[in-house]
Specification:
single chain; alpha+beta; Topoisomerase I, Chain A, domain 4; Gyrase A, domain 2; 4-stranded antiparallel sheet; two-stranded antiparallel ribbon; 4 helices; 15% strand; elongated
């Protein structure tokens, strides 16, 4: 019964960390990465389709992405979607491929990105603490129903706190790595 609670809360905490890492991967940090385009959606024959399902994205240089659509008739739609996105990148096309040159980030913009990453990290820490609170409430309910003893409750609380500390530490580690990447010139 306690193991089930631990497994459930740990699974949710892992998902929270994975979501945070994916969110940060899409944040522009001065270096080109295909993850930047994951949120860009193209109107493909009336169907909103992620750009990564319509083309190959390569990074031949640290500040250049090359987008090669499988259906060349969609180049204009892909360019339009990139322009509408929050990336702030102007695509250039030669009719077969689209090149995206990432401009150098200013120090001010880097600091804004770090602040945004920290806000996201705090949101994830709060989510993990909420998962801890839910798990502790479940354990207290088990105690009230007589399904576990007082000692089991105390051990369960300690175990849930250890999980919480571990995953908040993981969020901090992910944030520190992203901050370092953003501040790299």
């Amino acid at each position: 019964m306690l193991d089930e609670v631990y497994r459930e809360v740990e699974g949710k905490m892992k998902k929270t960390c994975a979501l945070f890492q994916k969110e940060l991967a899409g944040m522009r940090a001065g270096r080109a990465t295909p993850a930047l385009l994951e949120k860009v959606v193209v109107d493909y024959y009336g169907t909103p389709t992620p750009i990564t399902q319509l083309c190959t994205v390569t990074v031949p240089e640290p500040r250049l992405m090359v987008v090669q659509p499988w259906d060349r008739s969609q180049i204009a739609a892909i360019e339009k979607a990139i322009m509408k996105s929050e990336l702030g990148i102007t695509p250039t096309s030669d009719g077969t491929v689209i090149r995206l040159v990432l401009p150098q980030l200013t120090q001010e913009r880097r600091q804004e990105l770090v602040k945004q990453a920290r806000r996201w990290a705090e949101e994830q820490r709060v989510a993990i603490r909420n998962l801890r609170r839910e798990a502790l409430e479940t354990l207290r309910e088990f105690k009230e129903e007589g399904q576990i003893t007082e000692d089991d409750l105390r051990r369960g609380q300690e175990q849930v706190q250890k999980l919480t500390d571990r995953y908040i530490g993981e969020i901090d580690r992910i944030l520190a790595a992203k901050e370092k990447e953003i501040m790299e010139v």
